[in-house]
Amino acid sequence: MSxxxxxxxxxxxxxxxxxxxxxxxxxxxxCRMLVLISESLQAELEHKLRPHKLNDSEFxxxxxxxxxxxxxSTPGEVCLFTSLGVTNMTRIADALVKRGLIxxxxxxxxRRRVVMQITPAGRRFVRKMLPAMFPRLKHVFAGFTxxxxxxxxxxxxxxxxxxxxLEHAAGDPP
Amino acid sequence: MSxxxxxxxxxxxxxxxxxxxxxxxxxxxxCRMLVLISESLQAELEHKLRPHKLNDSEFxxxxxxxxxxxxxSTPGEVCLFTSLGVTNMTRIADALVKRGLIxxxxxxxxRRRVVMQITPAGRRFVRKMLPAMFPRLKHVFAGFTxxxxxxxxxxxxxxxxxxxxLEHAAGDPP
DNA sequence: TCATTTTATTTCACCAGTGAAATATGCATT
DNA sequence: AATGCATATTTCACTGGTGAAATAAAATGA
Lengths: 174, 174
Known about the structure:
2 copies of one chain form a homodimer. Chain A is built from 7 helices and 3 strands; from the N terminus they run H-H-H-E-H-H-E-E-H-H. In chain A, strands 1-3-2 form a 3-stranded antiparallel β-sheet. The first copy, chain A, is elongated and about 65 Å long. Chain A is mostly helical. At the A-B interface, helix 1, helix 2, helix 3, helix 4 and helix 6 of A face helix 1, helix 2, helix 3, helix 4 and helix 6 of B.
């Protein structure tokens, strides 16, 4: 089923609920739509990655190392940038090491730490893969004017701000 | 780490990549931000559900049945509305049956089918749970004017439209 | 210095989603 | 009515994320 079909069914479903519970706030459809769009974006990315036998997590990890000045970082730090859970990092790094895209070894300064470093092959991979994604990425925003873009950016950040408050509020907002 | 922190790290990370690959299109941050927001929304919902020992999938399934005129549907149909995979439906229905929120039995007309029906307890549960979520849901859109809302709605649907085209295009867009 | 606490990574058991294949029924065509 | 195709659900093996606990090294400080 296509994304638009999914959204259609979502709208129908919410309409059905609203008939029974009219107080249902207006934002539900948008929240769910946002989730659907996000899933579709992820799927799009994974689709591009699959032929190379990498998944989103592994790619994000690789890119994070790529973007560091010296191409190195530690599992904990990578997780800060990628929003991945630390516990996954071991497995992800295992996979990248096996593919020869990064190396991993103990840190000299602090022996609790592990340093991950992108290899030349890893750098080549990123430099080849990333640009290959640009056309599709651009198409996602096709027909968006500059003000469209900046509106969307502003509204998403506002949403994030509100959500952030919710995270920190224990119970219901006043 | 809070959502705003995550977005901060995301922005920093993308900036780092852009230094090395300046052609990186403008939309990346927004795409990733969208995913982060979606994850946060999901987490928020699951947080509300956890005390009741239900997860998002189970709740969506329950609400779908709730919204049907006769409170019944089939696994396949529920999946259309919820965007869940059919293969998960067995397990999800198992859980809901065990909790006494739905019943499940063979269909009289078509014996390939299974009919799921929400129980009175299930209806009570929805009627109690849903309104409890409204305050937080409203807070997500706090500070949004009506035009904000309709802009966001329009832009998200436009995004969905573009993504939908990508799904159907085999390779890169022309 | 030695005990305590903090930090970094890993391991493990569990939960949830996925695609491929199995099963079972219905439907259509000969 | 028999064959083959379509539909609906389930099963299964696999992948990936999560929290709690294990491990190990550094930092703190009496």
